[in-house]
Amino acid sequence: MTTSKARITAIGSYVPTNKLTNHDLENLVETNDEWIVQRTGIKERRVADSNEYTSDLAYKAVLNMTERYNKTIDDVDIIIVCTMTPDFTTPSVASLVQAKLGIKNSGAIDVNAACAGFAYGLHLANALISSGLHQKIIVIGAETISKIIDYTDRNTCILFGDGSGATLVEFDERHPSFLSFHLNSEGEKGRSLYCSNLSKSILGEAIVDNNKIVQNGREVYKWAVSSVPRGIQNVLDNASMSLDQVNWFIPHSANLRMIQSICEKSGFPIEQTLYSLIDYGNTSAATIPLSLDKGISEGKIKSGDNLLLYGFGGGLTQAGLLITWNV
Hints:
Radius of gyration: 18 Å
């Protein structure tokens, strides 16, 4: 494992003000609060305004970060935005955020690894800084999933919400954050979770072409609860650490039942697991930074804690990171 020279030094988050509760959904589809909570753990989610887009949420998360940590960002080298709901095909969300922030000498790229996106973004930032090529990178997970939801499909519309989280990653070879990682993709299962665009098929198989998110929840669940525990063990093995050395597990907040199953299969206590789905639903690439920031705001995460971040979803793709929180 290459020695890290990168440290996460700040975090911020933002969610839209509009709430969509389970009771609100009862007026849209055949469902009810008890059914949703029992199967997902979700009580409400946030929904962006019609004129509010992913770049707006991402920008506000960065502002929240800089205000809380008193950080200067005009010398940032690269902005990485992890999202599956960009404002445009091009320009990238990262370019729009760069313009809103007024950073003159920053590169800008989007990363689309769906619900694993934020972990991939942090992994890229660590690699770019540890290689010596860059010094300071903003990594953002931001989504406006509500804009690609079919609100007549009760299997998907109850799950997803909008939100954003941002972190600053800087060069620091004395107190690096990153300990180990595990990356994996099983693209042959991509048909289990997709949103159509140009192609009308995935690997030759016809798809529903409605530009809305389509999910086979049962297949995604089976994949996650079998593959994520194995990935967790790989992350630990790569760091020569055991599970009892992890203070907090921060998985993608897809579904509480899924998280409980992953914890049970991996042997990690649910009491030391952080998630953001109860109030925000599944916000894809934003779930992990929202959960992380929530844990910090509630005083659960302390400096020196070992955190296991694990994203998984569309692709089907996964990414796990073991980090030490040194903020």
